[in-house]
Every structure is written in structure tokens, then in C-alpha cells.
Amino acid sequence: MRLQPAAAVEEVQSLADGVADHPALDNAFFRHWMSGPLPYPQVEVFAREFHARTVDAMLMAALAVLHADDLDDRVERVKHLYTEYGSGDAAKAHLLLQEHMLTDLLGRLRGAPYTREELRAADPLPGTRAFTQGRRALFTDDDRRVVQGALLAQELLAHPSPVRLYEGLRHYRDLYDVDGFHRMSEYFYVHICEAAKIDPVRAVRSAAAVCRDGADLARLREGFDGLLDLTAGYWDTVYRAMLAA
Questions:
Q1: φ and ψ at 2, to 5 degrees?
Q2: What are the φ/ψ torsions at residue 213 (nearest 5 degrees)?
Q3: For residue range 58-106, what is the model confidence (pLDDT) as tens digits?
Q4: By the 8 A CB rule, do 103 and 43 touch?
Q5: How much of the chain is in helix, strand and coil states, percent to nearest 5?
Q6: Distance between CA atoms of 125 and 112, rounded to whole angstroms?
Q7: Contact 24, 228 (CB under 8 A)
Q8: Are 61 and 80 in contact (CB under 8 A)?
Q9: Who contacts 215 (Cβ-Cβ below 8 Å, separation ≥6)?
């Protein structure tokens, strides 16, 4: 059955409305991370797995540009890609900001310097590898409806996820002076500020534009649910590994 544009938007909006209650956001990891200061071994597990999942973030941002379906979407995603690379300053590339944040925090918790080489040398958990491989498969799917669904899920997670991670980071403020803590936190500040610029209404309408009938909607949902489920599985992997550390 053919979907009218307004009906397609309504259907996709109903998907978007369920994100807050999905285990990709409402999960044991975030509750644990935000509950208070955690012991060093648990923080190290989080840091290593969070870094491992972030390594290909720039590639995902580039793929998002390629799959934008109109000029406005492409412009917004180019802006995001530009910020991922430090807005022209290589020293501010987001991966480097993250590495500085994580190694600085781990060094203070351990009481001895923690190097980038240590952070980069860790082998990701199988659940983390499954997330990165699955996410890449969704973003390189031959069906643009699947890709649009995954992009929508990613955009809807882009603000609430770093907000929750930053709230947990604030439990370690006592390890720093005021200025030092906020310098260390720059990675989250840039992500939260950039993600706040995402217009969820535009994101929903962009995804709905590829849905002309029920089959289109089903394929979009495949990508949408796929990315959410991969994310939920990733955080569950990290949580269980932290408890076992």
C-alpha cells in the first residue's frame, strides 16, 4: 500500500519516539556509569572499549555525507565531518581529544602515566568488534533505505549518549582542579554541542522521504532497529566486562 508523505513522516516519527526507552539508551551500563566513581579496572575497561568503538567514527561521518539524499542534509553532514577532523586543526580531531581525555583520567586513577599506546594496544572485546562490523555493514548496505534508517538512529542517539557519558565523567572532578577538569572534558563538550544542532524533525523527514510504501518502511526500520540493537549489545558487553574486571 502506498504511503502518503504525511503518513510516512508519522510512521517514522513513531520509531523516533521510542528511542529513549530502547536499551541503546535505557540500559544497565549508563545507570552504572552515572551511579558514582568506579574502581580503576572498571574505568579502564570502559575506556578501552569506548576508544575501540570510536576509531572508525570519522569513516562513519564520511559515509553519512555520501548517503545524504538532498543538499541540506549533505551540508549538515559535511559540517559534522569537518568538526570530527577538528574544524581544520588536526590537534583537535575528535579521536585525539578522546585519547587525551581517557589517558589523562586513567593515569590519575592509576597514579602513573597511561599512554596512548596502551589505550590503542588493547584488543577489543568480541561484542565491541560485532558492533563496529555491524555498524559498518549497515552504513555500506546497498539499500539506501537501510542506510537511512541507520543514519536516523545514529542521529537520535548523538545527543543523549554523550550527555550520559559526561554525567558519569563528572564523578571524577575531584581528581582535577576546575580548569583542568573542563580542559580534559573537551571531547564531550564538542560532541554535546554539535549533537544539539541536529534537528530531529529534519532527521525524521529526511528518513521518511525514502518511504513510499510499507516495503520501504520495513527496510528503513531494518536499518533503524539494527543500529539500535547493535548499540544496546555493545553497551551490555561493556557493562558485563566492567563488572568482571
A1: -75, 140
A2: -155, 180
A3: 666 666 555 556 666 565 555 555 565 545 555 557 778 999 999 999 9
A4: no
A5: 80, 0, 20
A6: 25
A7: yes
A8: yes
A9: none
Sign for the CA dihedral angle at 174, 160, 60, 199 comes to negative
Q: Using CA atoms, how far apart are residues 243 and 245, in angstroms rounded to an integer?
A: 6
Backbone angles phi, psi at 115, to 5 degrees: -95, 160
**With contact defined as beta carbons under 8 Å apart, do 167 and 34 qualify?**
yes
The string of pLDDT tens digits covering residues 152-200 is: 999 999 999 999 999 999 999 999 999 999 999 999 998 888 777 788 9
Give how far the C-alpha of residue 202 lies from the chain's centroid of Cα atoms, to the nearest Å: 19
Could you tell me the pTM of the whole model? Answer: 0.88
164 and 30 Cβ atoms separated by less than 8 Å: yes
Is the CA virtual torsion 140, 155, 168, 183 positive or negative? positive
CB neighbours of residue 100 within 10 Å? 16
Q: Is 68 left (phi over 0), alpha (psi -120 to 50) or beta?
A: beta
